[in-house]
């Protein structure tokens, strides 16, 4: 198989002039080092977790694009506060795209790397929005026979995040979970995993159709935050499930605080669960996303045994260790077309991903809408 | 030694009618059970941590008192939101007073209990705002020869809290601490402990005289939150010390978030400490008090490796285990008149503690002002 000598990769730069600039840059095709493989990237999703590296704190409402094909360039102004927050990345061209899948088209020395030649593998390693990617063979997850790059493109971020919610739950001694933005791709996966594992899950959604969707999947506890009865419904569901752990995708506003308040109210109903300093059991809400960029407001009427904090998959995996990672990856590969199936509403090329009108669509983060970049598609 | 058959104890009740009622109630003197001792309480401090049980979410600005001596009664209205939060304690008469010291005047069967007869001991066990208190002998800390009940009255809450800040620091892998309300009794203790243990401490104060006080004690890092240069000063101090752990006594407002922002800005100056998801090291701020009852606001410009949560001494000690508790208590007894010396501005009787004008003074929580109840003082 002969490889092209050059390939295109998407890079994102915040310039010291206060501008975000994203473009496709030509790179030399590397020689695979010992233990390395070269993957021809065929499918790579745009996840909410990619948006941070792509757009950072830029004003995307004012984004515009110029050029076409390989020369498409997306720019957006960065407000002053954004420049302060992004100080550490100014003038660095950052590769983007957390995960993806494709065919192994070259391999360096080493039996394992060589054994992957021609196989379809999934990769989480950053820099996946490009036509090719060199990675350590050990980082690639070979898909089962018959599974395509599109099947495996979202193998890591959502599946591992959902699985690691349950790992976190078990590791920190909780027995049930509250999840927000629960009708998302990730949320639906979590519903399936919790059903399979017999874990009670309280799903928080904002709309009736999301409620219907999850109930249609067999979800038992679904509460709608736009209803007047939200806090009462949430407290009831938490009381029934005993959930003392929440994962919040929105991050901002008062939702995390509302979850803690409902946990506290549920504990107050339970004999022995309450002391003069509030409920005794530790109540934790992790913010794993930032769909709402407004400040997080905590009203603190929930005693002293509570915590709120950021939660990031790579940080969790680094702490959990290699054995846990292998166990979870194996499960994902085995259940790729069932529990961990992802659905895409749009398939776009690398250059389309830089067109302002397309960006506006996927940056809206509409529930149910999910974009897949196909880097081999014509620019 | 013959004991009176009755004694007075302070109780706090939130009634279902929406009123806080605090009074002195006559109790029968108990017979000490095997292993128990009866302590004649001679000195018991009013700590910020007592206020929650005493006053809860009542409107103390509208408090009034009636009667005199043993019949003094303090009442205050409880707003509707307060009633919701305090649901679990409605119509229960709760004993108050976390800690105190006094003379062992009776002891039940058992060598250890008997050996304490006539000794001055400190006790943390709740219900200390009373003339007598029956406790398990194992819960009492015998003071060294020559130390008085007043010396030992504040043996537990402040000393153990300050020591457990350092235990938390070591246990969670941090190497330096940020502390707010740093000129408090507790703050000054923490300065002395950190000096003795060689731990870097960043002290946050609000006033020039507090800054001067701490510098006079030899504190190296003191930053004043009322200065325009506060965030820059705080970032410098955190950069120099490498602090990734904060303890905040105020709880409300944006101070906890400011500390995390300064930690993030300090990390951005340090090569290798920063990734695209923000700084890599976990940054934690514990809220151990609620001097500011307004909501906590988190602006979340500090990546994903951060946490904010409640911190409560009994919860920490329960997790740390008996060996740690014994080690820390021994240190407190040994350094009672040096590292752990407390100073009181006012000594009052049990009935004075229920007079509305006196309550207004100690409820103001003015830095430097500290009240001691002397339950043997004439009512």
Describe this structure in words.
The structure is a homodimer of 379-residue chains. Chain A is of the alpha/beta class. Chain A contains 12 helices and 22 strands. In chain A, the strands form 5 sheets. In chain A, strands 3, 7, 8, 9, 10, 21 and 22 form a 7-stranded mixed sheet that branches. In chain A, α7 links the parallel β12 and β13 (221-224). In chain A, α5 (157-171) packs across α6 (185-197) and α8 (230-241) packs across α9. The first copy, chain A, is globular and about 70 Å long. The mean pLDDT of chain A is 94. Chains A and B meet through α9, β19 and β20 of A and α9, β19 and β20 of B. β20 (306-310) of chain A pairs antiparallel with β20 (306-310) of chain B.
> Helix coverage percent of residues of chain A?
25-40%
**Shape verdict of chain A:** globular
Largest sheet of chain A: 7 strands, mixed
Q: What is the residue-mean pLDDT of chain A, rounded to a whole number?
A: 94
Low-confidence stretches of chain A: none
């Amino acid at each position: 198989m002969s490889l092209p000598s050059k390939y295109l990769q998407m890079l994102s730069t915040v310039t010291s002039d206060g501008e975000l600039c994203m473009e496709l840059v030509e790179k030399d095709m590397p020689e695979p080092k010992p233990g390395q493989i070269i993957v021809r990237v065929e499918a790579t999703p745009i996840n909410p977790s990619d948006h941070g590296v792509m757009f950072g704190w830029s004003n995307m409402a004012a984004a515009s694009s110029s050029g076409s094909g390989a020369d498409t360039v997306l720019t957006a102004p960065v407000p002053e506060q954004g420049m302060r927050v992004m100080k550490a990345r100014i003038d660095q061209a950052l590769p983007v795209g957390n995960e993806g899948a494709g065919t192994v088209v070259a391999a360096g020395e080493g039996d394992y790397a060589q054994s992957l030649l021609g196989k379809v593998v999934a990769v989480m390693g950053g820099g996946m929005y490009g036509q090719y990617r060199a990675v350590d063979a050990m980082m690639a997850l070979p898909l089962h026979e018959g599974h395509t790059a599109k099947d495996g493109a979202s193998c890591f971020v959502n599946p591992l995040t959902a699985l690691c919610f349950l790992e976190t739950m078990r590791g920190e001694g909780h027995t049930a979970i509250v999840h927000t933005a629960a009708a998302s791709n990730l949320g639906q996966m979590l519903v399936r995993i919790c059903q399979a594992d017999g874990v009670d899950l309280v799903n928080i959604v904002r709309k009736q159709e999301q409620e219907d969707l999850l109930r249609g999947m067999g979800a038992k506890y679904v509460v709608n935050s736009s209803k007047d009865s939200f806090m009462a419904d949430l407290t009831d569901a938490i009381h029934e499930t005993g959930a003392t752990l929440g994962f919040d995708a929105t991050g901002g506003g008062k939702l995390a605080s509302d979850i803690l308040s409902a946990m506290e109210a549920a504990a107050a109903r339970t004999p022995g669960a309450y002391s003069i300093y509030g409920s005794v059991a530790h109540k934790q809400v992790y913010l794993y996303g930032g769909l709402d960029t407004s400040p997080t407001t905590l009203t603190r009427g929930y005693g002293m045994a509570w915590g709120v904090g950021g939660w990031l998959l790579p940080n969790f995996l680094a702490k959990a260790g290699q054995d846990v990672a292998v166990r979870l990856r194996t499960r994902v590969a085995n259940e790729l077309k069932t529990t961990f199936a992802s659905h895409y509403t749009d398939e776009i090329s690398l250059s389309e991903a830089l067109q302002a009108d397309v960006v506006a669509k996927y940056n809206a983060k509409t529930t149910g809408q999910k974009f897949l970049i196909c880097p081999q598609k014509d620019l």
